[in-house]
Amino acid sequence: QMCGSRPDMAHSPRPGPGAWDLDVPLIESDTTLEQRVAGTGTHLRRWPVAQVFIQWLMESGCEELGWSRARTAAAGEAERVRLVELGSGTGWVGLVLSLNLAGARLTLTDHPSAVAHLRANVVQAAASKLAGMTPPEGRAL
Prior knowledge:
By secondary structure, the protein is mainly alpha-helical. The protein has a domain at about 45-140: 3-Layer(aba) Sandwich (Rossmann fold), CATH 3.40.50.150. The protein has 6 helices and 3 strands; from the N terminus they run ααααβαβαβ. It has a 3-stranded parallel β-sheet. Strand 2 (about 105-110), helix 6 and strand 3 form a beta-alpha-beta unit. It starts with 6 loop residues before the first helix and ends with a strand. Mean pLDDT is about 75; it is low at about 5-15. InterPro entries: Methyltransf_16, SAM-dependent_MTases_sf.
């Protein structure tokens, strides 16, 4: 089955067959005026485009990219989907992918000043939602 191949389930608040679990615990905060002026702090929140991207993956993107749950969960090492997210911020996109594409190899990256926050979100999600799964790796760019 292609991941997210049941659009009728994609908008369901509760995950079911074909639906994605989007409920990933995050440490988020609003940026201060000083952070915005300095161009920092953008990693502290989930951006709307992240939600649009995941929605596209659920509805048709996985099929267009050839990602299937079977390919990610049961594939041998050479066939696994491997993803690198540049500028991961809170890590929400990568964590949602980890939760819904079990077996995919993910590396989340961000600016060195943002990596501690990213890793904290990965640890929190791994403890509560990704038990028994390989959580994504967080690295500095």
